[in-house]
Amino acid sequence: MDILTTPPEVRAWVGERRRRAQRIGLVPTMGCLHAGHLSLVRLARQRADAVVLSVFVNPIQFGPGDNLAGYPRDLERDQRLCREAGVAALFLPSAEALYPAGHSTFVEEVWFSRGLCGDRRPGHFKGVTTIVAKLFNLVQPDVAVFGRKDAQQARVIQQMTRDLDFPVEIVLGPTVREADGLAMSSRNQHLNADQRRQALCLARALDAAARRLTAGERNAAALIAVMREEISRAPQARVDYLEIVDNETFEPVATLKRTALALLAVHVGGTRLIDNALLTPDGL
Ligand code: PAF
Predict the structure, then answer these.
(1) Annotated catalytic residue 37
(2) What's the rounded Cα separation, in Å, for the pair 282 and 163?
(3) Residue with CA closest to ligand 1 atom 2
(4) Can you give the pLDDT at residue 284?
């Protein structure tokens, strides 16, 4: 596995692969890899000859209250996992390499970035689209893989890719969960044992909504109430948002007539967790 740290190194590496007519896959990450990331690598390997995985804790997608310095990092382990997973090149840029002094250009998607995490984390998606656009330009992948756990991010990236005519196929990988249902996230490391138990309220809330839907409930407010009730059982959990939107348009829905997406962000202790699930009414 090659380790690349600067944009010129990436360009040279990619150029060499292209001369050999290889298809390139990209898995952008912020490191502290877990089984969810490794499932994205598998998807990329199925679609490309060589997979580049980037590890970059992108400072511009963190707001003042987001604890950039406290974001978990474990580069040695990340390297080992990438090697074992068959990653061809690990891209480990420094912040200075990607945002040299005087950097003043950003990429912003303005429709799907509204609401949900977009409202709670101003500037977050602008930071995400800027770094992903830069990575697309550097790596020039044929295919890039992102996780469905970050559903709004995935939608924003799909839109940016379409709007800016990036010739990149966007593939979304399913959310990978711990055995008890907790969605995998690097942030789970911040939870103590008690909070770890309480963090299950997110997956339980989504399950409860899905069960109520199966039982015939189509009213979004009623399904949201079911989820809120489930979250309230965890004393250290505080709802940030809890919404049901149309899966295509991301507009809030009042009555579920076609596939919708339930999304929630919940603070458990000091850790903000997100999760989501598709809600598909019977007969679709
Ligand atoms: O999902 C993430 O880990 C990040 O937002 C991403 C896509 C790597 C951009 O920094």
Answers:
(1) yes
(2) 34
(3) 29
(4) 55
Supply the range of the domain harboring residue 10. Answer: 2-173
Q: Distance, CA 129 to ligand 1 centroid (Å)?
A: 9
Answer for the pair 183, 177: CB distance below 8 angstroms, yes or no: yes
Whether residue 120 is found in the same domain as residue 207: no
β strands within the chain, DSSP E: 2-4, 24-29, 50-55, 89-91, 143-147, 169-173, 237-246, 260-268, 271-279
pLDDT < 70: residue spans in the chain: 283-284
Nearest CA to ligand 1 atom 5: 128
Q: Do 204 and 133 belong together in one domain?
A: no
CA of 226 to the centre of ligand 1 (A): 31
Question: Whole-angstrom Cα distance, residue 278 to residue 261?
Answer: 4
**Rounded distance between C-alpha atoms, residue 52 and residue 88, angstroms:** 6
The tens digit of pLDDT for each residue in 255-276 reads 999 999 999 999 999 999 999 9
156 plus 260 within the same structural domain: no
User: How many domains are contained in the chain?
Assistant: 2
